[in-house]
Structures are given as C-alpha cells and as structure tokens.
Write a structure and sequence with these properties.
Low-confidence stretches of chain A: none
Mean pLDDT of chain B: 96
Distance between the termini of chain B: 10 Å
Helix content of chain A: 25-40%
Low-confidence stretches of chain B: none
Structural class of chain A: alpha+beta
Radius of gyration of chain A: 21 Å
Strand content of chain A: 35-45%
Radius of gyration of chain B: 20 Å
CATH superfamily of the largest domain in chain A: ACT domain
Number of helices of chain B: 13
Oligomer: heterodimer
Strand order of the largest sheet of chain B: 3-2-1-4-5-6
Order of helices and strands of chain B: EHEEHHEHEHHEHEHHHHEHEEEEH
Structural class of chain B: alpha/beta
Helix content of chain B: 25-40%
CATH topology of the largest domain in chain A: Alpha-Beta Plaits
Number of domains of chain B: 2
Largest sheet of chain B: 6 strands, mixed
Number of domains of chain A: 2
Distance between the termini of chain A: 31 Å
Number of strands of chain B: 12
CATH class of the largest domain in chain B: Alpha Beta
Largest interface: A-B, 22 and 27 residues
Strand content of chain B: 15-25%
CATH topology of the largest domain in chain B: Dihydrodipicolinate Reductase, domain 2
Strand order of the largest sheet of chain A: 2-3-1-4
Mean pLDDT of chain A: 83
Order of helices and strands of chain A: EHEEHEEHEEHE
Shape of chain B: globular
CATH class of the largest domain in chain A: Alpha Beta
Largest sheet of chain A: 4 strands, antiparallel
Chain lengths: 176, 316
C-alpha cells in the first residue's frame, strides 16, 4: 500500500449476478486485482431478483481510490453493481438496559433507537427473572456508523430516560 | 517530624499507631470529643485504649490539638460536603501558622480546591493529599512524578464497597440486597452504605483527580460530576454482561474536562475488572501509553501508609 497514504476503509458492494457457473468468481477477481481485501461474501442463492438475478453482498476493505477502481472494473466487466459505498456500520457497541423493559414496549424502544440514531440492532438478549411485570435486563448490541457511536449512545440514553430505564454503558473506545 | 492528628477513626488511629515506626512523634491526637496533647509526644497506646474504654482519646480540648506544637497537621476527620467544615477550618488554622497539612479528608480538596490552594500560596506550609484518592495506591504522587500536564485522562475503580458488591454478585449470581447485607456483616459496607453505593465517594476522588489534572485552570466540585450509583442493580444485568464476556463495574472517569461516575460494561478479564475491595486507577499518559495502579483503596493501615508517605515527602 505504498502508493497511497489514504486510510483503508470498509465498504459494502451489492451486486446482481447472472445465474450461471463462474459468475461469482468473475465478480471477485476485480476486487483482488485492485488490492481490495475481501471481508465477507453473502451469496443469496435462494433469493432471486424479479429479473432472475442472484443478489450478492460483498464486504471489503480498501483505500478510497482503490475502491473506485474496483467498482469501475466491475462495471467494465458487465457486472451489475446495484449499490457501492462505505460500510454503514463501522463500530459496534453493547449496552445493558435495566427496568420495566417489557412493560414500556421493548419493540418501540428498539425501533426508536434505530430510527433516531441511524444505528442497527444486531443482537438482543432479554432476562426477565420475575416475569414480564418485574424489573428485567436487556443486553443490546448496536452497530453504528464509524464515529457515530457517541451519537447512538446519546439516543439510547434519551429513550431510556423517557421510559425510566437505567442504562449501563460501555467504556468509550479502547478504554478497558 | 512532629505530627498532630485530627480525627481518631480508623485512619487517624492507624496514623498514630504507625507514626513511631516511621520515626515521627505524635504530639496530639484528637476527635470531636476530646484530645490527647503533649508537645514531647503523647502515649499513643494509652490514648487509643482510653478511646476504646471511655470513648475519648484524652481530657484536653480538641482546639488545643490544633493550636499545639506540630510540624504537620494530619486532617483525618470525616469527609463533609459543601463548605467542607470542620476539616477546612483545621487546614486553614494550620496553614496560617505556616504548618504543613496532610489530608485524608476528601472534603476540602473536593469541594474547595481553589480556596485550599490560595491558602497554601500565602503559607510556608504545604498541602499534600495522597490518601484522599485510592487509599494505599500512589495515584497522586505518580501524577506528580509524570507531571499533571502529561496525563490526558484518568479512570478506574475507586470504591471498594461498590466493587465488592458487584464482583460478588457476578461471581455468585446473588442479588444486590443479599450481597450488600453480607458486605455489612463483613464490615466491608457501613450500616448506611449510601455514600459508597450511590457513587458519591468515587465521585469525590474523581473530582480531586480532576482538580489536580486541571492545574488550577478550572476548579471542580462534586456538583460538576455526573454521578450514578449501583444501588439495586439487578443480578440479571450482570448475568447478561457475563454471557457476553463482560462485567459491570462502578467506573469513575476524568476525561475532556468532564467527571463521570457510573456502572459501566468492561471486559470480564480486563484490567478494570478488579475483584473484591481492590481498586485500580488507569492513567493515560501523553507519551507512555497507559499506566495501571492497583491495590487497596481503603482501610486504616492502608490509608495511613499514604498519609505517612506524604509526611515523609514533607520531611525530605
């Protein structure tokens, strides 16, 4: 990576592939050729688009200029690039909510956190030792955009305060 | 050095007991009810015996201890908030006589730091306060050695009672009330544990850290701290944290000009997840990464060790 001083970032590319052998490999080659680092491939084999194509979501890391070259090269190869951009969710954070979580409409709580903070809820674990009526705890794992973890936390705090819930927050960044 | 000790609780008594070993003479030991005063050195054992039997350390007026002969006043009366009296008045009286003051009482430097420093500037005496943050741990002297300007942030576990409760709850799967009662039986928690479990004690220590790190650019008091305690934290919260490789600790933070204390998620086997009554302070240094100082954050002999280290610093 000596030709670029730009930071490597995470990107997601959504492709639509024609359903024939070798298509996936053909789509991945330009990524490797242009120095992208493949992180994951989500190949939705059973989920065919109305046009009979197969959606594939590729997560990769590259510098911004290399990423541009990758997308250009995919298009030159005639591969249908539906969407290409920086990964929406660069950071994850976990919080524990405590209180009358079920009574105060858990799904509404989660919806509002997602809506207001543009974060995505990746995982939820609920513990209601005294049944739905008592105090319970929920561990929520949120994916937020890079640099937006503080904003997501602020939203969690706001929604929790309104509903009378306690929030156990993580320590910021690499602390701990 | 001749030492006058105000406050004859666990810390004051321990300072009196250990002072001889450190080569110092205790010329007065006093609490609010009475005093033992002798410019040539009091008999510490007799004074502490008398306190045990009669509830007073001696027949003299506590004011005589403050006005008597000493080089260092050890202020170990209970921490009070707001005007920090009577501790602040004791400190003022000693500094006005150009005597040194070693604080174990957090009140004056948590609530009136600027006033303390102003009095110190007018005096030949100095004020040291290692014992106010983290008991036996050398936190303030480490900051002093590095230079407060080279420390960018501080955080840690600064209350042994709250940490005992949280670590027992996590390890044994017991409820808050159960573990708190156990802590009270063991003498780890006081009959009224609110100062500890509501986060006030940890917050006072963080405020003192903030004052030291701010180097006079800004004064902090308890009112500047955002404080949340661990009272009635359900066991289910610790269980959920544990399932995810984390645990919950009462963490105090001084960072970017803000002081914050509250229960936080930390890695279950990370440095901050100390167990029992152990404390830890992490300092972020400008050029040398992170520094952890861990040890016993409370207790008579532990805190007295920090007090006597300060006395030795004044002696050198």
């Amino acid at each position: 990576m000596s030709d670029s001083t730009e930071e490597v970032r995470a990107y997601t590319v959504r492709l639509e592939l024609v359903d024939r052998p070798g298509e996936l490999l053909r789509a991945l080659e330009p990524i490797a050729d242009h120095g992208g680092n493949l992180l994951s491939i989500f190949h939705e084999r059973g989920n065919v688009t109305p046009r009979g194509h197969i959606p594939v979501e590729v997560d990769l890391e590259a510098t911004p200029e290399r990423f541009e070259a990758i997308v250009d090269s995919l298009r030159e190869e005639g591969i249908n690039v539906i969407q290409a951009g920086a990964d929406r969710y660069g950071t994850e954070l976990t919080v524990v909510l405590i209180g009358h979580i079920v009574d105060t409409d858990l799904s509404d709580t989660l919806d509002r956190i997602e809506d207001a903070s543009d974060a995505s809820i990746r995982d939820l674990s609920l513990s209601t030792p005294d049944g739905d009526a008592g105090e319970s705890s929920a561990r929520v794992r949120l994916a937020a955009q890079r640099g937006a973890a503080d904003a997501a936390l602020a939203t969690v705090r706001e929604v929790a305060e309104e509903k009378g819930l306690r929030v156990v927050e993580p320590l910021a960044g690499d602390a701990a | 050095m001749r030492i006058a000790i105000l406050g004859a609780g666990a810390v004051g008594s321990s300072v009196a007991e250990l002072a001889g070993e450190y080569g110092h003479t205790v010329t007065a030991l006093a609490d609010s009810r009475g005093a033992a005063v002798d410019p040539g050195g009091i008999d510490v054992e007799t004074a502490l015996d008398r306190k045990e039997r009669e509830g007073v350390v001696g027949g003299s007026d506590p004011e005589d201890a403050l006005a008597g002969a000493y080089d260092v006043l050890v202020e170990a009366t209970p921490t009070t908030l707001g005007d920090a009296q009577p501790g602040f008045g004791h400190l003022r009286a000693a500094l006005e006589r150009d005597r040194h003051v070693v604080l174990a009482n957090k009140g004056p430097v948590a609530e009136r730091y600027a006033d303390v420093r102003a009095l110190e500037r007018e005096s030949e005496g100095r004020v040291l306060m290692e014992a106010t943050v983290g008991g036996a741990m050398p936190v303030l002297s480490t900051i002093d050695d590095f230079g407060p300007g080279r420390i960018t942030a501080a955080r840690g576990v600064l209350n042994g009672t709250a940490n005992f409760v949280l670590s027992r709850m996590a390890a044994e799967g017991l409820g808050y009330e159960h573990v708190l009662a156990e802590a009270q039986d063991l003498g780890v928690a006081e009959a009224d544990p609110s100062f500890d479990v509501e986060g006030t004690d940890a917050a006072l220590k963080c405020v003192i850290l903030a004052n030291v790190l701010a180097r006079g650019d800004r004064e902090y008091t308890l009112a500047d701290a955002d404080v949340e305690g661990i009272k009635s934290l359900p066991g289910s919260a610790l269980e959920l944290a544990n399932e995810d490789g984390r645990t919950i600790r009462l963490i105090g933070e001084v960072s970017d000009g803000a002081v914050r204390v509250g229960p936080r998620l930390v890695p279950a086997y990370g440095a901050l997840a100390v167990t029992g009554t152990r404390n830890i302070v992490q300092l972020e240094t400008e050029h040398a990464g992170r520094l952890n100082v861990s040890g016993r954050g409370a207790g008579g002999p532990e805190t007295a060790t920090a007090v006597l280290a300060d006395v030795d610093r004044l002696d050198s």
